[in-house]
Specification:
- By secondary structure, the chain is mainly α.
- It folds into 3 domains: about 90 residues; about 100 residues, Winged helix-like DNA-binding domain superfamily/Winged helix DNA-binding domain (Arc Repressor Mutant, subunit A); about 150 residues.
- The protein is about 60% helix and about 5% strand.
- The longest helix is centred in the middle third of the chain and has 34 residues.
């Protein structure tokens, strides 16, 4: 790829750092770029592709003028911008020139100070395409280093070096390497790997550490819960755009509870109560406006809405939800034990009594499966 193409791509990344998708859409429409005419709404446009189309038609002086006249409202995330051709401060002041030499120095500082553990964390983030949840990073570090390492100490220390930043929400964060620095960080990691081996660091398998045992047990549930949160957020954004209402109501306490471990029947009773709360708490009154018949109960209302607005939806979405609710409502302490509870257990592949921890993980996976299928359906263009 020649320098001109590299500049165009880096300009696009800079524009994405400055402007959300709606702002990119408005800029593109204002410049009369044909690409933007195919979209009725900015939501249907790919953020990067929109920025790239603008980048193709503007020169460096246009970029400087645009960013000066339309500075970021809240400053730039990810420590500004550290490109090969463009640099920006966190306040949004852009200049033509490279930041890569500074990036190289910061990578070297990290490797000199934390050696192969820094290598493992940096390479893991890159392998995850620059952004990953905490437990995904742990999994990838093991593949890189050949042993498990928990990066809770190191991750926050990459922020001052402008290499990795905590992103996402406070309760469900992930970690991001600025995309413009990934090529130069890759180069430095390749050089490190080729350098003479450092003195071997004592490797303590995570399983031999007491806190590590808890972490390993917790990891699967936390990964699923994280994906559930992300998928619910994604569905709410799409619903707000398409149907002018969110689908899910917020319930942080229930979200926090489904992330906890489940080791016995009492734990399961508490967790399933929280999960069914998330299922029940939807925008019923708004959904009813699209339904031509009187319907009661959250799942019934949701099903009637899907049949009216998305008639080809995957029926397993509703079947999963109904069986999850049965695990709560047809069992002590919510109600007297009922044979339907056994039927729901069998639906999820268990006999009575089940391994409550395994059952909880399978139930969460089925809820996530319903969310993913729903997201695919509502995200389809008509």
């Amino acid at each position: 790829m020649d320098e001109k193409e590299e500049r165009i791509k880096e300009r696009a990344l800079l524009l994405m750092r400055f402007y959300w998708r709606d702002e990119i859409y408005n800029i593109g429409k204002g410049l009369n770029i044909p690409y933007f005419n195919q979209f009725k709404d900015y939501w249907d446009m790919d953020h990067y592709q929109g920025a790239l189309e603008i980048s193709k038609v503007i020169a460096d002086n246009d970029l400087l003028r645009l960013t000066k006249e339309n500075p970021p409202k809240y400053g730039l995330s990810l420590g500004g911008f550290q490109g090969e051709y463009y640099t920006a401060t966190e306040k949004g002041e852009v200049k033509l020139g490279s930041s890569w030499e500074e990036v190289r120095k910061n990578v070297q500082k990290a490797l000199d100070k934390w050696d192969e553990k820094a290598y493992g964390v940096l390479q893991a983030i890159i392998n995850e395409e620059g952004r990953a949840a905490y437990f995904e990073i742990i999994d990838e570090i093991e593949k890189v280093l050949g042993y498990e390492y928990v990066p809770s100490y190191l991750l926050p220390r990459f922020g001052p070096l402008k290499l990795i930043f905590k992103t996402g929400s406070n309760k469900y964060p992930d970690w991001t390497m600025p995309p413009e620095i990934i090529p130069v960080v890759k180069e430095e990691l390749i050089a490190y790997k080729k350098s003479p081996k450092k003195a071997e660091i004592e490797k303590v398998p995570l399983e031999e550490d007491a806190s590590g045992n808890i972490l390993l047990t917790d990891r699967g549930i936390s990964n699923i819960a994280y994906k559930i949160v992300q998928k619910r957020r994604e569905i709410n954004l799409i619903f707000s755009n398409k149907f002018k209402t969110k689908l899910f109501k917020d319930n942080e306490m229930a979200i926090l509870d489904i992330r906890k471990l489940c080791s016995n029947e009492e734990d399961f009773n508490n967790r399933i109560q929280s999960l069914t709360t998330l299922i029940d708490e939807i925008e019923n009154e708004e959904l009813k406006k699209s339904i031509n018949k009187p319907v009661g109960g959250s799942i019934n209302i949701f099903q009637a809405f899907l049949e009216d607005r998305l008639p080809n939806y995957d029926k397993s979405i509703i079947v999963n939800l109904r069986n999850i609710v049965t695990l709560r409502s047809k069992k002590f302490p919510i109600h007297h034990d009922d044979p339907k509870f056994i039927e729901a257990l069998r639906y999820f592949g268990f006999n009575f009594p089940p391994d409550w921890g395994e059952l909880w993980e399978v139930v969460l996976k089925n809820y996530l499966d319903s969310l993913e299928k729903l997201s695919n359906h509502v995200g389809e263009r008509k």
